[in-house]
DNA sequence: AAAACGGGGGC
DNA sequence: GCCCCAGTTTT
Protein backbone atom coordinates (compact mmCIF):
# COMPACT_ATOMS: atom_id res chain seq x y z
CA UNK A 1 0.00 0.00 0.00
CA UNK A 2 1.40 3.39 -0.96
CA UNK A 3 1.11 6.62 0.92
CA UNK A 4 -1.83 7.87 -1.12
CA UNK A 5 -3.90 4.81 -0.30
CA UNK A 6 -2.77 4.93 3.30
CA UNK A 7 -4.15 8.44 3.64
CA UNK A 8 -7.37 7.27 1.99
CA UNK A 9 -7.67 4.33 4.37
CA UNK A 10 -7.19 6.55 7.42
CA UNK A 11 -9.79 8.97 6.13
CA UNK A 12 -12.30 6.19 5.52
CA UNK A 13 -11.74 4.88 9.03
CA UNK A 14 -12.24 8.30 10.55
CA UNK A 15 -15.45 8.88 8.63
CA UNK A 16 -16.91 5.53 9.66
CA UNK A 17 -15.54 5.63 13.21
CA UNK A 18 -18.83 6.17 15.06
CA UNK A 19 -20.32 3.09 13.40
CA UNK A 20 -17.64 0.52 13.91
CA UNK A 21 -16.36 1.77 17.26
CA UNK A 22 -19.74 1.55 18.99
CA UNK A 23 -18.96 -1.82 20.62
CA UNK A 24 -15.89 -0.35 22.28
CA UNK A 25 -18.10 2.04 24.21
CA UNK A 26 -20.15 -0.77 25.70
CA UNK A 27 -18.37 -0.65 29.04
CA UNK A 28 -19.83 1.27 31.96
CA UNK A 29 -16.81 1.99 34.05
CA UNK A 30 -18.47 2.51 37.41
CA UNK A 31 -15.64 4.38 39.10
CA UNK A 32 -14.21 7.88 39.19
CA UNK A 33 -11.98 8.58 36.18
CA UNK A 34 -9.06 10.62 37.42
CA UNK A 35 -5.45 10.66 36.26
CA UNK A 36 -4.68 8.45 39.23
CA UNK A 37 -7.36 5.80 38.57
CA UNK A 38 -6.47 5.87 34.89
CA UNK A 39 -2.83 5.25 35.71
CA UNK A 40 -3.57 2.32 38.03
CA UNK A 41 -6.06 0.91 35.55
CA UNK A 42 -3.35 0.93 32.89
CA UNK A 43 -1.08 -1.12 35.14
CA UNK A 44 -3.85 -3.65 35.70
CA UNK A 45 -4.49 -3.89 31.97
CA UNK A 46 -1.05 -5.17 30.99
CA UNK A 47 -1.44 -8.39 29.02
CA UNK A 48 -5.02 -8.72 30.22
CA UNK A 49 -8.41 -8.64 28.51
CA UNK A 50 -10.50 -5.49 28.94
CA UNK A 51 -13.47 -7.24 30.53
CA UNK A 52 -11.30 -8.81 33.22
CA UNK A 53 -9.46 -5.58 33.92
CA UNK A 54 -12.66 -3.60 34.28
CA UNK A 55 -14.11 -5.94 36.89
CA UNK A 56 -10.91 -5.64 38.93
CA UNK A 57 -10.86 -1.85 38.49
CA UNK A 58 -14.31 -1.51 40.01
CA UNK A 59 -13.50 -3.62 43.04
CA UNK A 60 -10.14 -1.99 43.65
CA UNK A 61 -11.33 1.61 43.32
CA UNK A 62 -14.27 0.87 45.61
CA UNK A 63 -11.59 0.20 48.24
CA UNK A 64 -9.25 3.06 47.29
CA UNK A 65 -9.39 5.56 44.43
CA UNK A 66 -6.64 7.90 45.61
CA UNK A 67 -2.97 7.26 46.40
CA UNK A 68 -3.61 8.34 50.00
CA UNK A 69 -6.15 5.57 50.47
CA UNK A 70 -4.24 3.02 48.40
CA UNK A 71 -1.08 3.07 50.50
CA UNK A 72 -3.15 2.20 53.54
CA UNK A 73 -4.03 -1.16 51.97
CA UNK A 74 -1.79 -4.18 52.34
CA UNK A 75 -0.42 -5.93 49.28
CA UNK A 76 -2.51 -8.96 50.19
CA UNK A 77 -5.71 -6.92 50.26
CA UNK A 78 -4.97 -5.62 46.78
CA UNK A 79 -4.00 -9.07 45.48
CA UNK A 80 -7.28 -10.51 46.64
CA UNK A 81 -9.26 -8.01 44.57
CA UNK A 82 -7.15 -8.00 41.40
CA UNK A 83 -6.42 -11.74 41.33
CA UNK A 84 -8.23 -12.48 38.03
CA UNK A 85 -6.08 -10.09 35.99
CA UNK A 86 -3.01 -12.30 36.36
CA UNK A 87 0.49 -11.16 37.32
CA UNK A 88 -1.35 -10.23 40.48
CA UNK A 89 1.54 -10.31 42.94
CA UNK A 90 3.73 -8.09 40.82
CA UNK A 91 0.89 -5.78 39.87
CA UNK A 92 -0.20 -5.36 43.50
CA UNK A 93 3.33 -4.43 44.49
CA UNK A 94 3.59 -2.08 41.50
CA UNK A 95 0.36 -0.35 42.48
CA UNK A 96 1.70 0.27 45.96
CA UNK A 97 5.08 1.45 44.65
CA UNK A 98 3.47 3.83 42.18
CA UNK A 99 1.14 5.23 44.81
CA UNK A 100 4.03 5.91 47.16
CA UNK A 101 6.03 7.56 44.39
CA UNK A 102 3.12 9.79 43.38
CA UNK A 103 2.60 10.85 46.99
CA UNK A 104 6.20 11.43 47.89
CA UNK A 105 7.75 12.67 44.65
CA UNK A 106 4.78 14.44 43.06
CA UNK A 107 2.70 15.61 46.05
CA UNK A 108 -0.12 13.20 45.19
CA UNK A 109 -0.61 14.45 41.61
CA UNK A 110 0.08 12.27 38.56
CA UNK A 111 2.81 14.04 36.57
CA UNK A 112 1.99 15.30 33.07
CA UNK A 113 5.32 14.87 31.31
CA UNK A 114 6.48 11.72 29.60
CA UNK A 115 9.90 11.93 31.24
CA UNK A 116 8.45 12.11 34.74
CA UNK A 117 6.02 9.26 34.06
CA UNK A 118 8.82 7.06 32.75
CA UNK A 119 10.77 7.80 35.92
CA UNK A 120 8.13 5.97 37.95
CA UNK A 121 8.99 2.32 38.44
CA UNK A 122 6.32 0.21 36.79
CA UNK A 123 5.49 2.76 34.08
CA UNK A 124 7.10 2.04 30.71
CA UNK A 125 6.76 3.66 27.29
CA UNK A 126 3.38 2.14 26.42
CA UNK A 127 1.85 2.98 29.80
CA UNK A 128 3.16 6.56 29.62
CA UNK A 129 1.52 6.98 26.20
CA UNK A 130 -1.81 5.66 27.39
CA UNK A 131 -1.78 7.88 30.47
CA UNK A 132 -0.84 10.99 28.50
CA UNK A 133 -3.59 10.28 26.01
CA UNK A 134 -6.39 9.13 28.32
CA UNK A 135 -5.75 11.33 31.34
CA UNK A 136 -4.43 14.51 29.75
CA UNK A 137 -5.72 14.39 26.18
CA UNK A 138 -2.26 14.41 24.61
CA UNK A 139 -2.21 12.74 21.20
CA UNK A 140 0.78 10.44 21.19
CA UNK A 141 2.71 8.69 18.47
CA UNK A 142 3.34 5.03 19.19
CA UNK A 143 3.08 1.66 17.53
CA UNK A 144 1.70 -1.06 19.74
CA UNK A 145 0.92 -4.58 18.69
CA UNK A 146 -2.44 -3.56 17.17
CA UNK A 147 -1.04 -0.77 15.03
CA UNK A 148 1.87 -2.96 14.00
CA UNK A 149 -0.48 -5.71 12.83
CA UNK A 150 -2.71 -3.33 10.88
CA UNK A 151 0.15 -1.57 9.09
CA UNK A 152 1.44 -4.96 7.97
CA UNK A 153 -1.95 -6.27 6.89
CA UNK A 154 -2.47 -3.16 4.85
CA UNK A 155 0.96 -3.65 3.32
CA UNK A 156 2.04 -0.13 4.32
CA UNK A 157 5.05 -1.63 6.09
CA UNK A 158 6.67 -5.04 6.07
CA UNK A 159 8.21 -5.48 9.50
CA UNK A 160 8.75 -7.94 12.31
CA UNK A 161 8.37 -5.79 15.42
CA UNK A 162 6.34 -2.74 16.52
CA UNK A 163 9.62 -0.88 17.04
CA UNK A 164 10.57 -1.32 13.39
CA UNK A 165 7.09 -0.24 12.32
CA UNK A 166 7.34 2.91 14.40
CA UNK A 167 10.67 3.78 12.81
CA UNK A 168 9.25 3.43 9.30
CA UNK A 169 6.09 5.31 10.21
CA UNK A 170 8.18 8.24 11.38
CA UNK A 171 10.16 8.18 8.14
CA UNK A 172 7.10 8.02 5.90
CA UNK A 173 4.73 10.38 7.68
CA UNK A 174 4.97 13.96 8.87
CA UNK A 175 4.19 14.66 12.53
CA UNK A 176 0.85 16.15 11.46
CA UNK A 177 -0.03 12.97 9.59
CA UNK A 178 0.84 10.87 12.63
CA UNK A 179 -1.38 12.86 14.94
CA UNK A 180 -4.32 10.87 16.31
CA UNK A 181 -3.33 7.87 14.24
CA UNK A 182 -2.43 5.71 17.21
CA UNK A 183 -5.75 6.02 18.98
CA UNK A 184 -7.71 5.45 15.78
CA UNK A 185 -5.78 2.34 14.78
CA UNK A 186 -5.82 0.83 18.27
CA UNK A 187 -9.61 1.07 18.35
CA UNK A 188 -9.75 -0.37 14.86
CA UNK A 189 -7.48 -3.22 15.90
CA UNK A 190 -9.56 -4.01 18.95
CA UNK A 191 -12.94 -3.90 17.27
CA UNK A 192 -12.57 -4.98 13.63
CA UNK A 193 -9.00 -5.75 12.60
CA UNK A 194 -8.50 -8.30 15.38
CA UNK A 195 -5.49 -10.62 15.63
CA UNK A 196 -7.62 -13.67 14.93
CA UNK A 197 -10.65 -13.61 12.66
CA UNK A 198 -10.76 -9.96 11.63
CA UNK A 199 -14.26 -8.81 10.69
CA UNK A 200 -13.45 -7.96 7.09
CA UNK A 201 -17.12 -8.02 6.08
CA UNK A 202 -17.71 -4.86 8.15
CA UNK A 203 -14.39 -3.18 7.46
CA UNK A 204 -14.57 0.24 5.75
CA UNK A 205 -11.08 -0.23 4.34
CA UNK A 206 -11.29 -3.77 3.00
CA UNK A 207 -10.92 -2.66 -0.65
CA UNK A 208 -7.57 -1.01 0.07
CA UNK A 209 -6.21 -3.76 2.32
CA UNK A 210 -3.53 -6.10 1.01
CA UNK A 211 -4.10 -8.64 3.80
CA UNK A 212 -0.46 -9.27 4.53
CA UNK A 213 -0.97 -11.14 7.77
C1' DA B 1 18.28 -11.05 24.03
C1' DA B 2 15.52 -13.85 26.93
C1' DA B 3 13.04 -14.98 31.04
C1' DA B 4 9.70 -14.10 34.45
C1' DC B 5 5.26 -12.47 35.99
C1' DG B 6 -0.49 -15.63 34.90
C1' DG B 7 -5.47 -15.97 35.04
C1' DG B 8 -9.43 -15.59 32.00
C1' DG B 9 -11.87 -15.35 27.53
C1' DG B 10 -12.57 -16.88 22.63
C1' DC B 11 -12.76 -20.67 19.77
C1' DG C 1 -6.37 -27.67 24.39
C1' DC C 2 -4.26 -23.59 22.31
C1' DC C 3 -3.73 -18.73 21.42
C1' DC C 4 -4.14 -14.15 22.88
C1' DC C 5 -3.96 -10.04 26.03
C1' DA C 6 -2.07 -0.91 24.32
C1' DG C 7 3.88 -4.51 29.22
C1' DT C 8 7.83 -3.89 32.43
C1' DT C 9 11.55 -5.41 35.08
C1' DT C 10 15.17 -8.49 35.92
C1' DT C 11 18.65 -11.77 34.47
UniProtKB/TrEMBL annotation:
Q: Where is the signal peptide?
A: none
Question: Any idea where the HhH-GPD domain is?
Answer: 44-191
InterPro entries linked to this entry: DNA_glycosylase, HhH-GPD_domain, HhH_base_excis_C, HhH_motif
Q: Name one GO molecular function term.
A: endonuclease activity
Q: Which SUPFAM superfamilies match?
A: DNA-glycosylase
Q: Does the keyword Transmembrane helix apply?
A: no
What UniProt keywords are attached to this protein's entry? DNA damage, DNA repair, Endonuclease, Glycosidase, Hydrolase, Lyase, Nuclease
Q: Give the family per the record.
A: Belongs to the Nth/MutY family.
Name the chain's protein. Answer: Endonuclease III
Q: Which organism is it from?
A: Hydrogenimonas cancrithermarum
Amino acid sequence: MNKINFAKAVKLLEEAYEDWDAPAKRFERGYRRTPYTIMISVVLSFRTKDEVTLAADKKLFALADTPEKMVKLSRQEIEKVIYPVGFYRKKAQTILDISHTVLERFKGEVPRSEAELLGIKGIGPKAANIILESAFGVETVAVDIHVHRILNRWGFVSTKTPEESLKILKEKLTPAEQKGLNKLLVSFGQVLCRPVKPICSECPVVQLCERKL
